Amino acid sequence: MSQSSAALRTEYVCSCFFNRQIFIKKYGLHVSYDNDTQFEDDFRQSLRFRGCSTDKQYSDVLSQVKAEVERRKSYHSTFLSNYLRNREYRYIHPEIIQFQTSYLDQRFLDMMQEKNLQNADTLLQSLAANGGFVHGQQVYSFPIFTKNFCTQLIEEITNFKQSTQERSLPNTMNFEGVSLDEMGLSYTFLTPLIKNYFQTITKLLFSNWGGGAIDSFKSFAVRYDKDKHPSLSKHFDNGEVSMSICLNSEFEGGDLQLEQVLGQEEDLDMEPVAVNQQMGHCIMHRSRQFHFAHPITNGVRTNMIVWMRSSSIRNEMCPMCGQRPDIQEVPIAGDGFTLGQERTSCSCS
Ligand SMILES: [Fe+2]
Ligand SMILES: [Zn+2]
């Protein structure tokens, strides 16, 4: 989420936020809802193929979808009241609110030295020399955070979940999610991290996907556990460049698999790649690249997710509906659109 939302300035979403890309976990299907007739015409058959065969099962799905549409209508006002209330939250590690270079893995700091940032090639060479890998076209992994910082962040997330009564779900695919914005980390932790480090990388490695014009972000934590939520279904993200940073090591399995890019599904040359998740390491990829998490076979895994956004890209086409965005004003937690003009200055600055 952008700094401007943390400052409670008006933000914008595409109207598709309210009724599209609704995930039916039980049947592994994304749906949209305008009315009962449209829903039946568009999805009844697909649902039946996925095992939703009885009238009762279908009406349960319909109720679930309508409830989600209602939740989305009040999402931003609820987020705002949660955000304001959670300002009272008492941190167990208050120092994590303030970004410090000591949180960063020394290999990442070495990789980000000025001399390595001349162009994409020099950056990729230093990435490979400092514990990073190129897994495929525009899929990279490299160490970012120290283990000590990862542990503190997980402890803080866990404490936040236990001590706050009201939280907003960052998305419908993972009900264990926690918004890092709502936790109060946008201004002084995430913004400097993205502005001083991540944007430098996206500018060199994702310039063809808006990486040189990132001006807002959304960040949240997700948790997988073997019994309740072992995996994540295939999807793409609502961003331009995505990062998934693994925060712990007490799990087995859970590789992140990256496949085709939205709009380029016919690209048969694109080999799927499965990337191993390691504590303190991130996986960076185009947000529009379809991906899913393989099941973890043991333990619990927590990841911090960052979706970096460029208004200059998304003002032209909303990634979630594929149309020119139908822009709607919201009080907080927008999706990185601006009102017809590009932001005059980077909201990450
Ligand atoms: Fe994702
Ligand atoms: Zn849209």
UniProtKB/TrEMBL annotation:
Keyword hit for Cell cycle: no
A GO molecular-function annotation: dioxygenase activity
Signal peptide segment: none
UniProt superkingdom: Eukaryota
Keywords, comma-separated and alphabetical: Dioxygenase, Iron, Metal-binding, Oxidoreductase, Vitamin C
Pfam families in alphabetical order: OGFOD2-like
Cofactor: L-ascorbate
Domain Fe2OG dioxygenase stretches: 215-310
Protein name as it appears in the record: Fe2OG dioxygenase domain-containing protein
Species in which this protein is naturally found: Elysia crispata
